[in-house]
């Protein structure tokens, strides 16, 4: 009874002195928060498979996460993705466009990607500011037509094992009860199961026992006595036996143990040897620059305990670091707080019916509170052996950024979470030791901002002296709105935040100064530079790759897989894939209004302004200020409403004066809608005008003599997004297709209610949907759903 009262009293004192980033930060908290002042990004790539055959494409969806605020990171638009061979040598590199924390892309499996293992790495320029490597790296396997000889993939048995005994929080103490973690791996770095472990002292007396899980992780308690040694007798599930000495304990020190199996709280027991005279300690609970602290005071005892409510812990990872009175970190342990972070199954996916040559499905998210979820879905045959990723979006954002060691199969801890999975994760964190963030760096090496967030590219250039213009009009890009920039007195110009795709034309029009006799005799010479950041990682250390593919152990033939795809050629499927939401078909462009195809009109005698005026909008021009205002007839009766929203290639246009500078031959189509309703519009009756530029401009006309056009081809820019297409497989009923083929891939399914979608009917009786996603509020989803297709439907 006395012991219980003592623990309760200690707990009460600890909670009452709980500190969370107060204004009077101590030395430790101040350095810690400053170390994380610069925001940290995390990236996860969801691939439609882990093993690919020549003739297929590597499709992926990217998610970028703000770890501190637990929301999508939407500051960076430039995401670099590299492919390295099994020796870590760079093979391919591309730049992909990020949007609101998401990206999508693909790589073609060509002759550069021969049969073998590859590593894909995704990163941003901003990540270079930190000593910790925040890039995402994962492993895939490619089966190419060369070599055509049979190749077996199998795990070679080995009798070599590495057994480690790891004291909780870093130290084992003599004369104390200690909790030791057990970790055993084979020569391939994979965990193996110990079915029986016995701890014997030097008198051959058994004092403890243990087992491990299938990942080779376990633990046991031991009281180290003075002048005794201890030995572990281990029996593996294959019958092999191993004998190994336990590490010697410290005669002086401090450690702590965590009871993390209780539902509502964690209990922390702190121990010290009698040789430690320091009685004042601090326990810092921290994550991503946020921290809370508890003062620990020893009086006459060598042990003390505190309990902390899970409501006072951070969601997900919590790093517990014990400091002595000199602010020196002396022990550390990581724990995971599942509360409020991992929920039960969220996705409701149901087969609806067959529609012509497609299958329709209904999808919704249980208890949705976010405005929307952005999902990627890989649809594969039920018997697939080609989706063996060891990670998911949750493990990459919630676990791996905090660990410095290799983690086998991290997806295990965030799939069908139950009490056993939680215990397995606690064993992992017990054996991981100290976190990824070095206290030496925290105290002495605060990150400095040397690299910026990249939002698009910039184009700089110089004109020859014979130019007579004073500004440049920029246009022609699919993902960038037109803009006008001034030419300075040194004939230089700069365009910022543009998003040119590789091989896309950047069109420059030079607007001339107003003069009756102005005439451009010769076009000015333009020298330019596009600030594309080439990969400086020509080689990586493959031993640091943390996300490994679980390569199947069954044998298969490269030669037989080459017959999976007809003649190794890609054929576009004819099936039309549509997305529906609440019964309304989502179109790529709004077409309730009028569409004008430029090539169908006498564009040589027409301007953009005239087209807008001739299609029901009121255009007012003030040539003295070079300003324009456009009014929708419906909004003219409401002076408080705004005119139509103007879009160029679906990007809002704020400076309407640019409309006077757009060459009509650069436009493909204009959509006029006086009744458009959109959350982007200030007034629901303002309407919309959507201008789409042409990838192949019409012949230039000489309607205007005060503009001169110049084009620059982007040699290296953002990789153009491609819609998913599937190779034409030879036999959809073969076992080879069922193990290695693809049914469909969705890079973007936006769910803000009920969603319906279709996939091609490839005559599969059952299939699996591998779903990853993130909401606008940062809620994460990772689920695998199997669906049977009734034969009578």
The biggest sheet, with number of strands, parallel, antiparallel or mixed sense and barrel status, is: 5 strands, mixed
Overall CATH class of the domain at 158-337: Mainly Beta
Strand order of the largest sheet: 2-9-8-5-6
Radius of gyration, in Å, reads 32 Å
Residue stretches low in confidence (pLDDT < 50, at least 5 long) are: 1-17, 147-156, 515-524, 552-559, 567-592, 677-685, 699-706
Could you name the CATH topology of the domain at 158-337?
A: Immunoglobulin-like
CATH homologous superfamily classification of the domain at 158-337? Immunoglobulins
What is the overall pLDDT average?
82
Q: Which class do the helix and strand fractions yield?
A: mainly beta
Number of helices: 8
Helix content: under 10%
Beta-strand content bin: 35-45%
**Any idea what the shape is?**
globular
Features of this protein?
single chain, Immunoglobulin-like, mainly beta, 46 strands, disordered N terminus, 793 residues, 8 helices, globular, five-stranded mixed sheet, five-stranded antiparallel sheet
């Amino acid at each position: 009874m006395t012991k219980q009262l003592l623990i309760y009293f200690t707990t009460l004192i600890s909670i009452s002195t709980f500190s969370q980033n107060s204004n009077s930060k101590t030395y430790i908290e101040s350095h810690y928060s400053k170390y994380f002042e610069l925001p940290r990004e995390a990236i996860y790539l969801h691939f439609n498979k882990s093993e690919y055959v020549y003739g297929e494409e590597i499709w992926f969806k990217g998610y970028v996460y703000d770890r501190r605020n637990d929301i999508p990171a939407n500051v960076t638009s430039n995401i670099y993705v590299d492919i390295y061979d099994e020796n870590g040598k760079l093979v391919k590199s591309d730049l992909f466009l990020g949007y609101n924390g998401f990206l999508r892309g693909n790589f073609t499996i060509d002759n550069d990607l021969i049969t073998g293992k590859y590593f894909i790495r995704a990163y941003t320029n901003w990540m270079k500011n930190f000593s910790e490597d925040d890039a995402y790296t994962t492993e895939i396997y490619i089966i190419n037509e060369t070599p055509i000889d049979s190749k077996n993939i199998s795990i070679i048995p080995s009798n070599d094992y590495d057994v480690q005994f790891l004291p909780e929080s870093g130290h084992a103490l003599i004369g104390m009860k200690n909790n030791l973690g057990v970790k055993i791996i084979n020569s391939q770095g994979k965990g193996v199961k110990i079915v029986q472990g016995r701890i014997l002292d030097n008198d051959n007396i058994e004092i403890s026992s243990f087992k491990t899980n299938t990942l080779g992780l376990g633990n046991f308690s031991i009281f180290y006595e003075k002048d005794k040694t201890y030995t572990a007798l281990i029996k593996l599930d294959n019958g092999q036996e191993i004998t190994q000495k336990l590490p010697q304990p410290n005669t002086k020190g401090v450690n702590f143990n965590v009871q993390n199996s209780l539902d509502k709280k964690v209990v922390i027991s702190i121990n010290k040897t009698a040789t430690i005279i320091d009685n004042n300690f601090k326990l810092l609970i921290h994550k991503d620059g946020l921290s809370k602290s508890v003062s620990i005071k020893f009086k006459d005892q060598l042990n003390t305990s505190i309990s902390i409510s899970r409501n006072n812990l951070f969601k997900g990872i919590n790093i517990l670091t014990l400091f002595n009175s000199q602010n020196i970190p002396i022990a550390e342990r990581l724990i995971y707080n599942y509360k409020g972070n991992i929920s039960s199954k969220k996705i409701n996916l149901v087969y609806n019916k067959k529609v012509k040559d497609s299958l329709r499905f209904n999808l919704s998210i249980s208890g949705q509170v976010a405005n929307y979820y952005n999902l990627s879905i890989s649809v594969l045959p039920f018997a697939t052996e080609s989706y063996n990723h060891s990670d998911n979006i949750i493990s990459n954002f919630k676990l791996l950024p905090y660990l410095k060691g290799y983690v086998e199969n991290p997806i295990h801890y965030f799939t069908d979470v139950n009490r056993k999975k939680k215990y397995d994760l606690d064993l992992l964190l017990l054996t991981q030791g100290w976190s990824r963030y070095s206290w030496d760096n925290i105290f002495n090496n605060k990150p400095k901002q040397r690299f910026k967030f990249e939002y698009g590219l910039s184009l700089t250039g110089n004109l020859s002296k014979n130019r007579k213009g004073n500004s440049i009009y920029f246009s022609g890009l699919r993902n960038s709105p037109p803009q006008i920039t001034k030419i300075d007195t040194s004939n230089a110009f700069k365009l910022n935040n543009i998003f040119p795709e590789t091989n896309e034309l950047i069109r420059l029009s030079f607007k001339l100064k107003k003069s009756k006799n102005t005439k451009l005799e010769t076009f000015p010479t333009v020298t330019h530079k596009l600030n594309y950041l080439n990969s400086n990682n020509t080689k990586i250390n493959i031993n640091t790759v943390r996300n490994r593919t679980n390569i199947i152990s069954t044998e298969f033939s490269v030669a037989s897989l080459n017959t999976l795809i007809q003649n190794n050629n890609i054929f576009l499927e004819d099936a039309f894939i549509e997305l529906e939401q609440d019964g309304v078909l989502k179109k790529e462009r709004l077409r309730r209004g009028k569409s004008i195809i430029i090539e169908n009109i006498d564009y040589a005698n027409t301007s953009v302004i005239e087209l807008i005026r001739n299609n029901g909008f009121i255009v007012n021009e003030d040539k003295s200020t070079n300003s324009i205002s456009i009014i929708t007839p419906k909004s003219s009766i409401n002076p408080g409403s705004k005119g139509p929203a103007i879009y160029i290639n679906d990007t809002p246009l704020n400076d309407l004066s640019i409309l006077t500078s757009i060459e009509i031959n650069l436009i493909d189509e204009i959509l006029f809608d006086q009744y458009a309703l959109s959350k982007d519009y200030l007034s629901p009756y303002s309407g919309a005008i959507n201008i789409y530029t042409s990838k192949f401009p019409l012949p230039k006309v000489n309607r205007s003599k005060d503009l001169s056009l110049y084009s620059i081809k982007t040699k290296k820019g953002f990789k153009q997004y491609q819609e998913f297409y599937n190779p034409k497989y030879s036999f959809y009923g073969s076992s080879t297709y069922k193990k290695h083929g693809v049914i469909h891939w969705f890079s973007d399914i936006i769910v803000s209610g009920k969603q319906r979608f279709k996939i091609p009917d490839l005559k599969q009786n059952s299939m699996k949907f591998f779903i990853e996603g993130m909401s606008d509020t940062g809620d994460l989803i990772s689920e695998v759903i199997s669906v049977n297709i009734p034969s009578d439907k």
